[in-house]
Amino acid sequence: MALEERIVATYEFRSSDRSAARRLARRIAVEQTVEMPLSAVRREIRASVVGQLEHLEPLGAGRWRATISYPPELARGELASLLNLLFGNLSLMGGLRLVECHLPPVLMSQFSGPRFGIEGVRRMSGVSVRPLIASAIKPVGLDSLQLAELAYRFARAGVDIVKDDHGLYDQPYAPFAERVARCADAVAKANAETGGRALYFPHVGASHERLEERLTQARAQGCQGVLLAPLLVGPDRFWGLASRGEIAILAHPSFSGAYLERTHGIAPELLLGKFFRLIGADGVIFANVGGRFPVTQATCDAIVRNLTAHWAHLRAAFPVAGGGVDARKVDCWIERYGKDLILLISSSLYARRDLERAARELVERVRRYE
Amino acid sequence: MALEERIVATYEFRSSDRSAARRLARRIAVEQTVEMPLSAVRREIRASVVGQLEHLEPLGAGRWRATISYPPELARGELASLLNLLFGNLSLMGGLRLVECHLPPVLMSQFSGPRFGIEGVRRMSGVSVRPLIASAIKPVGLDSLQLAELAYRFARAGVDIVKDDHGLYDQPYAPFAERVARCADAVAKANAETGGRALYFPHVGASHERLEERLTQARAQGCQGVLLAPLLVGPDRFWGLASRGEIAILAHPSFSGAYLERTHGIAPELLLGKFFRLIGADGVIFANVGGRFPVTQATCDAIVRNLTAHWAHLRAAFPVAGGGVDARKVDCWIERYGKDLILLISSSLYARRDLERAARELVERVRRYE
């Protein structure tokens, strides 16, 4: 079978020399497939099912990169089995990083990817060229009226997407149904006053069947998009909801960071840039350089690239730069990442005395890229 | 509010001195709650919602332990919001380890924990005192008849729980419905011949609504338990299925390992030992010392302790020692972990020429602990 027809995973790890690196790579290929001593595996299964070491190369400084291929039959039809195959038990081994993954056409065809993507979200907001601005209403602890007032002010100022903070669930301070109704009304009122088309995306994270209820409530309030964290609701659940194509979904990286460590886990450009897009995120929030989280410019660049690059039949997903982006530095990010970008800016607006004015200045700055 | 009435989380991290450690601890308390500059947060929210640093102590060698408390309102009714509160954005920070967590009665009352637990699984298998033996049928690649033949041999030998390998999904080699029917029949046949009560636990991991279908199929075949990986189906989904109490669930640690790194993540004894029990795992598979995964004895001891210790109204969950346990060394593990233990042993049996005989010797060894 040609390599393009197989699942191809690239791992990086530390090793003393080539023969030890080869042993570890072969161990990965066995652990992730038959998971038992090869001597006890029938010859035909050894040939057709066990992962194959395709390539091994030194990266210098004692690090190695191994490319291993698996038969697509192992993961057909199931996202969970794909994640299990690529990094299930390996997650327990330590010192291993999954850095790249190729999926063959037979698997790709099972994923429809973003149902709206950059184009769809642009259509909703009526913004065809320039980057979009998103701001979060917060903090948790405010009541629904206070949050709606913030939503109103952001929308008045011209912010394109007003979203719930990802820490807003169904807390007694501002219960979900009440909050969503009030905020959707507030944004509609602002739009009526300004002639704008600001969108309100509530956070629908919830337990069990309540997640469906919240989606229904959000749609009933006219929301065209929502916020959801794949690692908190489960990547599979996220995929299921996104593939129905009823509502746009911004993916939040909460709880995903444990996979993103430098020496073990899954490269952020793969997890956020490819897997989140594969399971249908229309936009993916990532912690940008210079904010509150320790990330590198190369990682952010690679996330943006993977979200927007041509990839089979998948629509491009919006890169959403957040995690402490300074409103005064947006030009730098637009130049770097391009105009197909959502700037998620909240804290640096809240830090200003006049929130609406701060938001308006940001809007004016970004509208120059029309 | 008394500390026992609040959510109390303990984090460990590296810091140069006490004042830097205090700054980092306060940053955690803000990031996980209001997630914005404190100067822009109303006084009443600062007092009632922002996390509070309760305790800070040096651990030596530049490491510090901080105890932070949160109001229970932030996570009431939602598992996802609890995980988000404890480690959501922190997962993105690096160098932070969540090592302990206290949940107040108002939150604990929302979790029923294991619906069967040690006692329930013992009742199913008719084994009241000694440890249980579980073995996995594998490798993936065998057809349903071949897997059923293995299930038959394990059951004939007296293995208590015959389980699917966690890599078995719905692959074309042995499609789920066919495999489960054949294996359930094979185990029933062996039981009829031996007078035994071996159980067959299939792996029901699947995407979207197919997970429900597979549960239904498993129950229709008379299965009293199943295997499922919380991090692959989503902890929330796992909790939802477990809390219905229809079928016992063994939790598999696949894909959880990224959280378990030594300097960043969630301590294994907390994730596997407490959270998996909280969301209803009746048994929790962990990689034991001396097997294929790098774990410490102290970690395994702590996992076993947390699964079985008194904890509010939650039933004890079975520790399931796996990940390469050698059949010849079971006495050592029974002495160490006690009799409330499932020994998950497969590879070291497959490595022997006569599988049924190897399993029978293991069974005889363990039955001495009756």
Describe the structure.
The structure is a homodimer of 370-residue chains. Chain A is an alpha/beta fold and 370 residues long. Chain A has helices at 18-31, 43-48, 79-87, 105-108, 117-125, 144-157, 176-194, 210-220, 230-233, 235-243, 268-278, 297-308, 330-337, 347-350, 355-367; strands at 7-14, 52-60, 63-70, 96-102, 132-137, 161-164, 199-201, 225-228, 248-251, 265-266, 283-287, 318-322, 342-344. In chain A, the strands form two sheets. Chain A has an eight-stranded parallel beta sheet. A five-stranded mixed beta sheet of chain A has the order 2-3-1-4-10. In chain A, helix 6 runs parallel beside helix 7, helix 6 packs parallel to helix 15 and helix 11 runs parallel beside helix 12. At the A-B interface, helix 2, helix 3, helix 10 and strand 10 of A face helix 2, helix 3, helix 10 and strand 10 of B.
Helix and strand layout, with pairings?
The structure is a homodimer of 370-residue chains.
Chain A: E1 7-14, H1 18-31, H2 43-48, E2 52-60, E3 63-70, H3 79-87, E4 96-102, H4 105-108, H5 117-125, E5 132-137, H6 144-157, E6 161-164, H7 176-194, E7 199-201, H8 210-220, E8 225-228, H9 230-233, H10 235-243, E9 248-251, E10 265-266, H11 268-278, E11 283-287, H12 297-308, E12 318-322, H13 330-337, E13 342-344, H14 347-350, H15 355-367
Parallel strand pairs in A: 4-10, 5-6, 5-13, 6-7, 8-9, 9-11, 11-12, 12-13
Antiparallel strand pairs in A: 1-3, 1-4, 2-3
Helix pairs in contact in A: 6-7, 6-15, 11-12
